[in-house]
Amino acid sequence: MPRAMRVSPLIAWLCLLCGSLPAVAQHATGSDVFSGEQAFQSYCANCHGKTGNQIANVDLGHGLFRKPYSDEDLANIVMKGIPATAMPATPNMSAEQATQIVAYLRSRALLKDMGQGGDALRGKALFAGKGQCISCHRIDGEGSRLGPDLSRIGLLRSTDQIATSLLDPDREVQPNNRSYSVTTRDGTRISGRLLNHDAFTVQLLDTSEQLRSFEKTDLRSEGFIPSPMPSTRGTLSDQELTDLVRYLASLRGSGNK
Amino acid sequence: MKMSPRFILYCLLALASLSAQAQVTARQLLAPDTVPGDWLSYSRDYNNQRHSPLKQINARNVDRLHLQWVWQARSLEKFEATPLVVNGVLYTVQAPNDVVALDAATGRIFWTYSHQPSPARTCCGRVNRGLAILGETLFMGTVDAHLLAIDARSGQLLWDSKVADATAQYSITMPPLVVKDKVYIGTAGGDMGIRGFIAAYDAKTGRQLWKFHTIPEPGEPGNDTWSADSWQKGGAAIWNHGAYDPEANLVYFGTGNPAPDWDGRTRLGDNLYSDSVVALDADTGKLRWHYQFTPHDELDYDSTQVPVLADITWHNKPRKVMLWANRNGLMYVLDRITGEFLLGKPYVEVNWMDGFDAQGRPHRVPGMVPTPQGTLVRPHVHGAINWAPPAYSPRTGLFYVAHWEHSGIVAIEGQFPQSVGINARQTTMGDVTLEPFLNNEDEARGVIRAYDPATLKPRWEYALGNITWGGMLSTAGDVVFGGGKDGYFVALDAKTGRLLWKAALGGQVNAGAMSYAVNGKQYIAIAAGAALFVFAL
Questions:
Q1: Enclosing domain of residue A166
Q2: CA–CA separation, B431 and B426 (whole Å)
Q3: How far is A214 from chain B, CA to nearest CA, in Å?
């Protein structure tokens, strides 16, 4: 199947599972969802909020609508508004954009449902085993510091955000988790997580888990680099991904508080 | 799982490079001179000598010190913390309880861990005096009476143990002490009627291992030194750093005032172990010996100064001693193995006692308590010295103390409906009003003195323009550093006290200086106002 036409295995799998849900944009691609999110943030978030829950009884981010609308209904509402309400028409929106917004909203609802399934114990095993997450991440003092510490990730991120990060690691990287690389004048290249930088210096937690500080005058080059985290797409099964999300969402921090 | 070459490289590097940036071993804590450029604990070593072996900066060149960087804390609380430095990373506390990791060469921030303490009442500010470290873990007590363990590399919380109930007036301001695999922590709150203690925690898990109450309960020796049930809320808090003697396997802590501070009528007796030093078995917490500096204190003379351990010649024989400049205006030499009182004498004007018996018990001057007409008490309620750490140089053999001279306070029984006079204040720590001596607390002044431990006589004195809350630093360059309330930070010749260098920092010096090295360059760090200032040649 051409890449542009490939249905996200996760979405397809969840569509099969969730028969009671309205027909989803079954041919939506990851690209559609991404474009839909951008369009949503541009056209809709002003009133509905960034996560779609700013209006009473409407939680677009979790698939909660006032009626069980079909995708077509929703696309029409997005384009034409709802007469006699505050929901305005958007005359310059294309049908394609409206469909992408619907795909985005449906995907968010599905991701949430995914977090409610799964087996956290199996997810924990995947974290340390097949998923190899522990080689970059740390939970309760175990694992690497290269990536973000995930001990409290269940408090900090929703299940759909966790799933999104697993599928598309580069899509949203928090400022304190960005990867950075410097090359010193003698040609040594050091990479790591960017902790701080200013006009004259750069601070990293390097791949050796050392806190490093550099004067920019000592560097030949420096700059952001893509996240080294690989996508789980195509490497973990949908069930495994669901288990992993379930496990991560369960992490609320430990210690004897 | 498909792995990108980039990801595989990251994993290989991570596995291959478990190097030791923040790996502080128990052995290094025992022998900090093996890492001379680091400063691994509050006073650098278990003896609390605050003596750095670094000598790049010395008496001949210290006048060329200049500012390297300044780090501004986002806090209006007093900056009382002494930083730690481990392999080029400086760790300090932004009051009340934010831990900050900085590049020790540039002052740039690596990470900040923020703890938002629940509302907690402290007597004297939501302050913190510093951290401890073992392995890759930093330890901090919080003003809401928790003990936190924080990953030194990432700044992530590892564990959080509740030490005491903050709503019952317990709080923590002291730096923890780490010995072997244990973290020792006590609490403040002695002015609010807590029952003091020191507790040991497992450094790895945060589990409490033992707890020594500084006030014995009924059935324990010493409980009969408290009348009625006054022992239950008798204070004796431990709120400053302790010391450790590895050969004796003893940890030492000073204890605070009995409560209520200024009214002993409800707590008749000596009130053990308030205003004392307690020597505890480091493993079990069992009391080995104690010495009480101020029995039945009614003048708020906490004995929470930092114990300074030194090996000196005493009557022509080597002796392991403990030097103590106390808030009550007396300086002491104790045998730190047995607790034997060897010497004690006033080092400022003292009028509440006029001598010692053979066991070192002070003879009280009758009537030196709050009276309706007012009693002038010397030294001041804030003491000859309060909590600021002294220093000791094994090179000069001198004990360096920054303290107040000419201080006093007028203690008046009963609370007045309104404050009276300049700087008058009332206190709830007993039925008393404290009036500044001569209505002007600036009558007192600060001094830095070098004392001979064998005689407790001063060898030299440097007069500060104002009183001081600052501690001392000694270095192998034969320079000592101190500061005062007026914001001056001074470098003095360790042998003569001659002023060698000074800097006006524009804020009160409320901490002790420290020294470290990065890439062969020696630095001197001092907190003043709300900032940390770092100097080098």
A1: 120-172+232-249
A2: 9
A3: 9
Q: Which two tokens stand for residue B537?
A: 């040649």
Number of domains in chain B: 1
Task: Give a yes or no: residue A255 inside a domain.
Answer: no
Residues A103, A25: contact at Cβ < 8 Å? Answer: yes
A145 and A166 in one domain? Answer: yes
Tell me whether residues A201 and B108 touch, CB distance under 8 A: yes
Residues A20 and A99 in one domain: yes
| Pair type for strands B208-213 and B243-245 | unpaired
Residue A19: DSSP 8-state: T
B4 interaction partners in chain A (CB closer than 8 Å) = 228, 230
Query: What 8-state DSSP symbol labels residue A86?
Result: S
- pLDDT tens for residues B170-180? 999 999 999 99
CB B60 within 8 A of CB A250: no
Q: Distance between CA atoms of A79 and A95, rounded to whole angstroms?
A: 7
A256 within some domain: no
Residues of B labelled as active-site residues: 300
Nearest CA in chain B to A133: B11
pLDDT in tens, B99-155: 999 999 999 999 999 998 987 778 788 999 999 999 999 999 999 999 999 999 999
- Distance from the Cα of B532 to chain A's closest Cα (Å) equals 19
Residue-wise pLDDT for A233-257, tens only, equals: 778 988 899 999 999 988 987 643 4
Number of domains making up chain A = 3
**Do A256 and B159 count as a contact with CB atoms less than 8 A apart?**
yes
- What pTM, to 2 d.p., does this model score? 0.83
A106 and A89 inside one domain: yes
Q: Do residue A159 and residue A208 come from a single domain?
A: no
The residues of A whose Cβ lies within 8 A of any Cβ of B are: 130-132, 135-136, 138, 140-141, 144-146, 149, 151, 191, 195-196, 198, 201, 203, 205, 207-211, 213, 215, 226, 228-230, 232, 234-236, 253-257
The domain that holds B84 is classified in CATH as 2.140.10.10
* Residue A254 forms part of a structural domain: no
